[in-house]
Amino acid sequence: MRKQLIAGNWKMNGTIEETKTLIDGLLAGSYDDNIADMVICPPFTALTTAGKMLQESKIAVGAQDMSVHSNGAYTAEISSGMLLTVGVSFVILGHSERRQYHAETNQLVNAKAKVAIDAGLTPIICVGETLEDRESGNTETVIGQQIDGTLSEFSADLLSKSVIAYEPVWAIGTGKTAPPEMAQEVHRFIRDRIAGIDKNAAEKIQILYGGSVKPDNAKSLLSQPDIDGALVGGAALKADDFLKIINSL
Ligand code: 13P
What we know:
Elements: E1 4-9, H1 16-28, E2 36-41, H2 44-54, E3 60-63, H3 80-85, E4 90-93, H4 96-102, H5 106-119, E5 122-127, H6 131-135, H7 139-150, H8 156-160, E6 163-166, H9 180-195, H10 199-204, E7 206-210, H11 215-222, E8 229-232, H12 239-246
Parallel strand pairs: 1-2, 1-8, 2-3, 3-4, 4-5, 5-6, 6-7, 7-8
Helix pairs in contact: 1-2, 1-12, 5-7, 7-9, 11-12
The structure holds 1,3-dihydroxyacetonephosphate.
């Protein structure tokens, strides 16, 4: 039985004050950590605050990206080592917004994921098709390429230290969620693809769904056999909604 993981991607939202308020709200709530783990991914500037506030709690902290380099002349970049010093244990990699606005490729995401794991961080590796891909019947081709590319040269050991997130680009921030059966189909496809690398690791790896996950649709998505959690954007910015999502399990 795979444990569920509910991850909140705050994107470019959250001043220090807002971060404190949101985390206070999460800490005031409760959820069963035998069923699911929670991770929040605030912007870089709020990671120190989040790390300190959550140090003694069961809620983990993640970053939204990191550099493939460990140090040096890379203006504005943040390294895996720097993330570790502020209490970060997860990092989202290859989010479609990074791919779209910062030209991140499968190859770069693959390299970053290896660096992250090497540093002791758990990468949440994102894949997802655009509306055009889906409408032209290319969903599996695109997802297959993204999985093969981002997990290139991954061993069973590396897979056991990774999380995958399937986020159809057309469902992100649009209020249009993939119907649960459609999402399940892609999750199964991803798991089968990973089984091509290692069968056992494919059964164990958590594959999260992302794209307009809300309290009222979380249960139907998370009850699908190959959906092992959610990567939540907008609804992660309200403590009550995020708690409702994790408690819908
Ligand atoms: P929304 O939940 O706002 O659609 O965002 C999803 C997402 O991109 C999480 O990474």
